[in-house]
Amino acid sequence: MRFKRLALLYTQKCTAECDICCFSCGPKRAEKMSLSDAISYVEQVTDIPSISMVGVSGGEPFLYYPEILEIAKTANKQGLASSCVTNGYWATTKDIALRKLEGLQNFGLSLINVSLDTYHQQYVPLDNISNILLAADELGLEKTLACTITRASSRLYEMITPLGNDICNTTLIELPCLPIGRAIEKIPLPDFLVDTSMLSLPCFDLNDLAIDPQGNAYPCCSQGGMTSVLCIGSAKKESLIDLEHHFRGNMICRLLASHGPGWFVKAIENAGLGHKLNQSYTGICHLCYHILSIPEMITVVQGVADMEGKAIIQRALDSIRQAQNVVSLGEQL
């Protein structure tokens, strides 16, 4: 297991207050990473050669555009590319979009990820999205449109239709809304989409070193991955290389990467806690969040992880003994 990206959750302040927001971001939120902390984290990335990208998200990071420039500049000095997530509130004209994106591109920005869905567009005009797409295309920037959906929302194809040819050369992503944060309060339960097709798969997303404004570090930047169980430490108190060591030694993380959260379900049922599991989940991230948020299920997961850890150590010791026996036999011959 290796980290590939440093993901800075720079702020929980946002110009929008979307019903689907799993982080419950909005204009009244004040939490924000200090620029000095962000610079320190980026500078430490040189100790983790597998990381090649610094991603900045929120909240709305463009609220602090001069600081995002400094982060991109620092990343660029370290030989790292950078990316940014935005709702596009600031792109009121193509010229403004071009100027801001070019400023970031000059310091290594390679990807702009834009939110586009029923809920974000209650706050941001569709013309803003067009301005960003056209400006990014002119600059040769990679661009992504991410659409979060519920049963009651428009689908991705409906959202992009008015954009016409502006979406050319754009990566399109459609994601189910997770029942976390403000979403669980605002979205009716029947409106969450259900997907059982991937619940038995391993987690392929444990490759981000995600740090929130408080310095809490996680091996995943999904909203479903930010539970106390998966917190690998504080970036304010420990170095990033130490956090990576915690991650690689964390048996729960190792089992999620090799087997996925669905692997723990049988043990939870055998412990008599099957009634605490939902009948359905929106996907693997929702399942992971749920079983690592309920104290009784956490106890089961930790117990299974401890047993697996001991089994791995025992197998290693057995292999060493077997190798020693082979050497001893060879010496006798």
TrEMBL record:
Stretches assigned to the Radical SAM core domain: 10-122
Originating species: Candidatus Desantisbacteria bacterium CG23_combo_of_CG06-09_8_20_14_all_40_23
This protein's UniProt keywords: Iron, Iron-sulfur, Metal-binding, S-adenosyl-L-methionine
InterPro entries for this protein: Aldolase_TIM, Radical_SAM_PqqE_MftC-like, rSAM, rSAM_sf
Annotated Pfam families: Radical_SAM
GO molecular function annotation: catalytic activity; iron-sulfur cluster binding; metal ion binding
Record bears the keyword Lipid biosynthesis: no
Taxonomic lineage: Bacteria, Candidatus Desantisiibacteriota
Highest taxon above the source species: Bacteria
Iron-sulfur is among the record's keywords: yes
Name of the protein in its database record: Radical SAM core domain-containing protein
UniProt-listed SUPFAM superfamilies: Radical SAM enzymes
